[in-house]
Amino acid sequence: MPFSLLPKLIFPSLTDVKPELLCSRGIDLLMLDFDNTMLPYTSTVPSPELLRWIDEMKRAGVRLCVVSNSKKAKAPGFCKAHNLPCVTHSKKPTGRGIRRCLARFDAAPEQAALAGDQIFTDVLGANCAGVTSLLVKPIHLHNIWLKLRHLAEQPFIYFARKRRITKP
User: Fold this and answer.
1) Pairing mode, strands 63-67 and 9-11
2) Using CB atoms within 10 A of its CB, is residue 24 exposed (0-12), middle (13-18) or buried (19+)?
3) Which of 36, 70, 83, 124 could form a disulfide with 138 if both were Cys (CB 3.0 to 4.6 A apart)?
4) What is the CA radius of gyration of the chain?
5) pLDDT band per the 50, 70, 90 thresholds, residue 168
6) Domain containing 145: what range?
7) Which CATH number does the domain housing residue 101 bear?
8) Is 66 within the bounds of a domain?
């Protein structure tokens, strides 16, 4: 698949991704990065808005699966508590975790999207795996390394917007 650091779609937050948009594009499997996409790195408590969004997606028939690089128990614990499938140690941007998720749901790449907050892992991994890449704004850039990474991503976000590939 093509090597690209440009997201297909950009959203202010994960909860701005609507099931109608996904369904209109033939997407019924949404893979979710965990840290800083669903919850801040520094928290284990989901917002009421996130919980409503998860319910809305499920009611609309969008299958959800957390695909996380994390090796910590935070993501699996959250997923278990909220009845969400989870693939950890996914090694994004390699396609390993994404392929495991697609196989688990018996889904073709064209039927799937991956939403995440990082260009160099989530967007690149999704694009290389042939799934639709959705970039969301990071929830909280709580340290200098996250701020620097986000700064390095700005040219790619600019070009994605300029090419008008970010419009839903």
Assistant:
1) unpaired
2) exposed
3) 36
4) 15
5) low
6) 9-162
7) 3.40.50.1000
8) yes
